[in-house]
Target: Fructose-1,6-bisphosphatase class 1
Amino acid sequence: MSKRVSLTQHLIEQQRLHNKIPSELRLLIEVVGRACKSISHAVGKGALGEVLGSAGSENVQGEVQKKLDVISNEILLEANEWGGHLAAMASEEMETIHRIPNRYPLGEYLLMFDPLDGSSNIDVNVSIGTIFSVLKAPEGMTEPSEKDFMQPGTKQVAAGYAVYGPQTVLVLTTGDGVHCFTLDREMGAWVLTQRDIKIPEDTKEFAINASNARHWFPPVQRYVNEMQAGVTGPLKKDFNMRWIASMVADVHRILNRGGIFMYPADAREPDKPGKLRLMYEANPMAFIVEQAGGAATNGKQRILDIQPEKLHQRVAVFLGSKNEVERVTSYHQE
Ligand code: FBP
Ligand code: AFP
Model:
């Protein structure tokens, strides 16, 4: 059997090789990884842990919170508060930022997360996940505010996600490729199982919520029609469709076998650019996908170049296999 490489060992080796992962950042990633283990444990208990169902509250986006949304948010906050590596956190589940309490030292990083993505799948035992993104706090910052988080995705120093599925995996980038770790449940350890994942440039798979087809704008209508036209259509191949309703699970499939994931803006609310959140979903996934050789746009521009204006900003998302993302983006530009 080949030698097992743990998350810690991998990060230290990356640090020696590329000198890009300061020890504070490594600590931060390890703590997030530990929190994901706890979330995985809570998710795995299901009905036995009395963690299923609604929490009876709504988040800032007006979405009903599930008990596991709230539990996962608490786990991430508590795990990351005391280490001294963070200045503040922001979560899809909280209205504004969470400052590190005064009793702990102020660190130099900002952490953003969607604690449990794919909430509609929790109670039906389908894959869900945690998504996170790390920024450096601006130089000289003393009292963190929302403004400090308003940095484009190109400024991310790390991003990752955990999928709680048949296996629990952690996918991570620090800007040196994308690597995947599988949770060894007996040992409670993240073990490196895929190094330097690459997304094929071409694909025959797409993921979109097709129930919204009548609301799509013409470029998306055209593109999906062309894919559905199959081998006799302009794209000259048959496509297959997959939609899990957990972005983490859809992106993980695409990372492993190619594909294009789309959550477009549509005509229902022309002023609302899509459903997904820039800071907690689109930016970290775009960083990972680009590091794996794929592409990620909002139909008009590269997601990582978008200058955020609001913490809970939404954005249209087209990401995955490069040639298909470029095709649908070009349809928006015509
Ligand atoms: P496999 O187990 O061979 O993957 O097949 C799964 C399945 O028979 C059903 O579980 C599923 O509903 C269906 O195929 C999916 O089919 P399609 O590929 O047309 O989406
Ligand atoms: P929740 O975590 O609020 O359930 O949202 C999940 C999600 O943002 C993303 O993970 C999915 O791709 C998308 O929503 C599914 O949206 P539909 O409800 O349109 O299928």
